[in-house]
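Trying the structure run again after the queue cleared.
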Amino acid sequence: MTPLPQFDSDSFRMVSRRVALNRRDFLRAAGLIGASAPLLGFQPLRAAALPRGHKVVVVTFGGGARDEETFAPDGQENIPHLIQTLLPQAAFYSRVVNQGILGHYVATASLATGAYETFDNFAATPPANPTVFEYYRKALHRPATDAWVVAPSNGFNRIGESDAHGFGPGLGAGVILPKHLLAAAMPQHQQTAFTHLLRDNYEDPYYTPDLRGGEFELSQLDTILKLSVREFTQHALSLSSADELSVYVAHQLMRQLAPSLLWITLHDMDVAHSGAFSLYVEGIRRSDRLCAEIWQMIQSEPEYAGKTTLFILPDFGRDSDFDSGGNGFQHHRTGDALSRTTWIMALGPGVRQGAMIDRPVQSIDLVPTLGTLMGFDTPRCHGRVLTEVL
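Done. Tokens:
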């Protein structure tokens, strides 16, 4: 495992700050933010002013993307929806540091617990710390149908609930792994038509997790999502990627159950591990489009329109082309400031539109922010509240 860098070192802070300022300058040069957009001394919105029945949707990118292919001038063509449609409506944190392990399941688990998890990324294990779903359901006495995760199937089946004392089984989110559902729905001899949707893990193709925890089962397809197996598989045939299938499933959840806390993890861009740059860029462009579709879904569903905050963030970044210890876009092995400095975009009622926040924050700050936004405590998380979006 790559040793963690000294996050308080002058060199790490300098590079991380430069990444954030570059993002701001790229967007300003493109006319996407104004000279007065950086947010200073903003007073948070009072929680009482938020609409009743407030909801939250979180979208994470499993795989991350470098600025060269996104916010830099040559990369902006790959994310037109993020920077032209969503950014003007959003508060944008340009300097979000991930100080944890750069593996997709463990990093996403850290995002969901607000504490840096340290388990093996390729182990079928639950987080050690309580998840945001458990905090939410336990504190507010919410039913199991009110918190859901839709995720890729490479180990994420345990992310819905921890094994922390006082939390754990029975208090977490339901977890839907669309690729597992599709594989269960199709006889083995018919799965070749769905090969592009069933690829499970780009880092370790031999890794297959145990199916345990609160994972959604095929038998629940009709009772919860109101879809027959035939409808589900027929729609899957019309899609080009697993992320599109995840967003389809998430939309069904919104229509049928309207959960107040919905977490969607996109994973297509992690095809970068295969070494195909064109497929990596295609994954970025698809993720960009799907984020806009999710925001449009939120605005079109009566249970969500006007009362939902959307958070979009990568789990971490990728290696530079100029680091001898890395593999460029293909991997995230160096653990340096470039691969650890990401961003968060927040949209919704009460969020100041077009705001650019340059101060350093951490990816684990998401959970306490969700707790403050939705009215529950997160006592064991290590992050701090992002006050600018409240």
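The chain has one domain: 10-40+55-389. Worth checking whether this holds up in the mutant runs.
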